[in-house]
Amino acid sequence: MITSTRPLVSENAARLVSSGAQPLVGAAEDFDPLLALIGNAHYVLIGEASHGTHEFYRVRAEITKRLIREKGFVGIAVEADWPDAYRVNHFVRGASDDADAEEALAGFKRFPQWMWRNADVVDFVGWLRTYNDGRAASEPKVGFYGLDLYSMHASMAAVLEYLDIVDPAAARRARQRYACFEHFGEDPQAYGYAASTGLAKSCEGEVVEQLVELRRAAAEYIRRDGRLPQDALFFAEQNARLVQNAEHYYRAMFGGRVLSWNLRDTHMAETLDALTSFLARGGTPPKLVVWAHNSHLGDARATELGSRGELNVGQLVRTRHGADAALIGFTTYAGTVTAASDWDGHAERKVVRPALPESYEALFHDVGGRNFLLDLRTDRELRSALLTQRLERAIGVIYRPETERMSHYFAAKLSSQFDAVLHYDVTRAVEPLERTGVWDRGEIPETYPSAL
Question: 417: which of 98, 214, 298, 429 is 20 to 30 A away, CA to CA?
């Protein structure tokens, strides 16, 4: 159990970080050591220390491009809603009517839009479409998939749309079951509160029944849906499973953070497993990249959150696949970030405070203020030095500098959490597609007007 955040043997750690740091200078060969570390792994989990940092999105995309071109990766699974990401999947595979990458990302309407509707993701989605268009007909196209479970109502609509085509009678039964949620409109949290407090009937039985019926009829539907894409049934089944898990999640939200967190990350790991099985139909185990926040992809057992009972995708994937999975994190010391001050708030360009002195980020800054890669798997001395627990910063879609120590730091043992870490010392905010005056204006630095 992690009980203290006091840095130990700091001088030795700084020396080993300085000697083990592999420079990231923007050259084509920057990521050669990382690809060597990844080797033949089938799962590469690439995190981010915030949901709004340009360098994390851009570099993650560049690493992913190399994994696709050089190591045969066939899918990107991201911390995003399944239906919205599947629209992007159809676009990059040349199977949609969307005119360009920006239009393909139009399904991302829910807060926080900027996580996926930003300039860096548009560039990557456009690249992926061009790459797939250049593939031979016999070669698999690279897909783009969502892992998250917030899209309960959109997923219900997708299930009904599929059943309307292949089995209208089953569609009528599904509508009757999903009508259980009608009293709450499009607000799943209102349903979760009412159901968890006994103010309304739980819809658990209905959503389970719907998923079971869909799975039982799968063989028959495969024979009927010849007019639909080959992945239509898989898409519908994943939406039905998402509805079941989301119903449980929204009830659990009012029973404590640990339970709801664990339900969400278990759902994402199960979706990754389902995607693996679906893409392995040709007999070749697929190689998949996962994009999500560090807090989801670094092994939770190495953090104080894990000591409280939280698990995450990184822990589950590492437990199931061992060295066949590579867990990669990002850190930054200072700069700017796109984030909101409150849930459902405007996207703002906020100043990221310099990291706290007892943090990993400050340690990395103090060895020279450089950008570098740390190999925490094969560099044994460095790995041992960074097993000492320190603070680690995590900025999600909300950033509150005024409560930063409480809101955005947790204790961790970095080299147990990740196999490699990329440190970018000063970073800048990701650029939303929907830029507003609030974002353009940015936040006045604390040093204004002296700038000292």
Answer: 429
- Please tell me the predicted confidence (pLDDT) of residue 402: 93
- pLDDT tens digits, 283-293: 889 999 999 99
Q: How is residue 425 written in tokens?
A: 């010392």
* Closest listed residue to residue 300, CA positions, set 291, 292, 308: 308
Closest CA to 236 of 83, 34, 413: 83
- Which amino acid is it at 379? D
Domain ranges of the chain: 1-66+291-452, 149-286
> Using H for helix, E for strand and C for coil, what is the string for the chain?
CCCCCCCCCHHHHHHHHHHHCEECCCCCCCCHHHHHHHCCCCEEEECCCECCEHHHHHHHHHHHHHHHHHHCCCEEEEEEEHHHHHHHHHHHCCCCCCCCHHHHHHHCCCCCHHHCCEHHHHHHHHHHHHHHHCCCCCCCCCEEEEEECCCHHHHHHHHHHHHHHHCHHHHHHHHHHHHHHHHHCCCHHHHHHHHHCCCCCCCHHHHHHHHHHHHHCHHHHHHHCCCCCCCHHHHHHHHHHHHHHHHHHHHHHHHCHHHHHHHHHHHHHHHHHHHHHHHHHHCCCCCEEEECCHHHHCCHHHEHHHHCCCCCHHHHHHHHHHHHEEEEEEEEEEEEEEEECCCCCCCEEEEECCCCCCEHHHHHHHCCCCCEEEECCCCHHHHHHCCCCEEEECECCECCHHHHHHHHEEEECHHHHCCEEEEEEEECECCECCCCHHHHHCCCCCCCCCCC
> pLDDT for 325-383, tens place per residue?
999 999 999 999 999 999 999 999 999 999 999 999 999 999 988 999 999 999 999 99
Q: Domain 1-66+291-452 is of which CATH architecture?
A: 3-Layer(aba) Sandwich (3.40)
Quote the strand ranges of 366-430, DSSP E: 372-375, 390-393, 409-412, 420-427
